[in-house]
Amino acid sequence: MSQLIIAPILLPLLTAALMLLIGEKHRWLKARLNLLSTFTGLGIAVSLLLWVRTQGQAESIGVYLPGNWPAPFGITLVVDHLSALLLVLTGIVGSCALLFARARWDGAGASFHALFQIQLMGLYGAFLTADLFNLFVFFEVLLAASYGLLLHGSGRARVKAGLHYIAINLFASSLFLVGAAMLYGVTGTLNMADLALKIPLVPEADRGLLHAGAAILAIAFLAKAGIWPLNFWLVPAYSSASAPVAALFAIMTKVGLYAILRLWTLLFSGQAGASAHFGGEWLVYGGLATLAVAAVSILAAQRLERLAALSILVSAGTLMAAVGFGQAVVTGAALFYLASSTLALCALFLLAELVERSRSANEAPLDDEEDVIPSPLESPHPPKGINLDDEQKVVIGQIIPWTMAFLGLSFIACALLIIGMPPLSGFIGKLNLISALFNPQGLGVAPEQALGTAGWTLVSLLVLSGMASLIAFGRLGIQRFWKPEERPSPRLRRYECLPIVILLGLCVFLSLKAEPLLRYTQDTAASLQAPDAYIKAVMSTRTLPGPTTLANETQP
Q: What percent of the chain has pLDDT over 70?
């Protein structure tokens, strides 16, 4: 199974290279290759998650050495509970975004399919790598692809937002390099597991330089995660991107959060000596500020795409604040919330284009008209005795075109998930998060100390942000679905409806089967808070014997 760890990286890399050789004249072939590679990558990610889940606590970490050099000298890839969960989420989001793009967006520009595969390669690599240098490499790979994907479809709004997006990410990448260089100067290594061993041994005279390097590195990750005040670029960029690209970007903000969670629990755990839990309070307060600003901004959202982008900031603030508490139960609840909110936000970005389509004056024509889903016709002759309105239409019993019914029900489902209302998984995630804040030792165990100011603030903001989202979704829902306007129902294609159904269906499945995922996320959080198993697995992995060694051993 360890040989399979590198497959999520190699598969999109080879697929993208093959697509560049094929050229744009055979776009239909590139689309099929893209679908095959993306679904295969999802299957590999699910296989890795099942393998991690079925192993014991000590054996649930897989390590692969691509260059056959032992850690910390060579490249190391690691899959554990956290990385496997994010690999599966990446595969699901990528597959659904690609299905939606097949309706028409993949033909709006050149090299869409190759860029899409390179984006997946960068995401998979960032979640699997175990050293800071290759984390930087995969960050740059996914960002380089995202620059092209953000501009896909052209338009002034995309170009303007894209310039801001490129500038802030180049600046964050520069901070990444500076922070990594400072850590290397103090510890002499960039391997995450080796850093965890070296940091407690750093002399007191170098401790300030260590903390400065870690803080600079954290700023780079926080900017990519969308934490206030470093998130001014996110809403314009995500709301201007095409629907499938914005849906794929819903998982990209989680890369910064993943890097913070991985490095903070490894490098500054309780075993880090004088540096234990360094910066935890800043994570909490930064998350709370992000959550508060995003909740207020949501009240002013007038477009569904902007509402979806602001909801990403609400999710990012909630997750960052929860992670900053450094408690396994709270982190486990936050990871469940991460899975549910990512799927819901991806569905909302896809749904936003379909809802806004009938309002757009510049709607792109759909080709392949025989695949367009028609709207059923109302009866032209209502029976006698039925109440009619001023326009001689039936007041009771009017037939709703099924396209509008589909969009309306999907909108309600997305709203319930993001607001956190029962009975869907968004409510379960927020309820477990609030319960974990009040019971950090678990249900039935009296907490050692009462919930502090930061905890009460997070609970209050969770409730208030939900109310703000309820107001925003309610206002947009009335404008888009209930406001009496003479607009034709938007034309939908099957490729556009299917991914939304899949994403919302998965959220319903999480609602019905919440216990297994909660158990998995709690195991993930427990392993993060006790990083000894991760460090041991990485540092104890031995290289494979080469041909010369084998030949010498077989000689008499």
A: 83
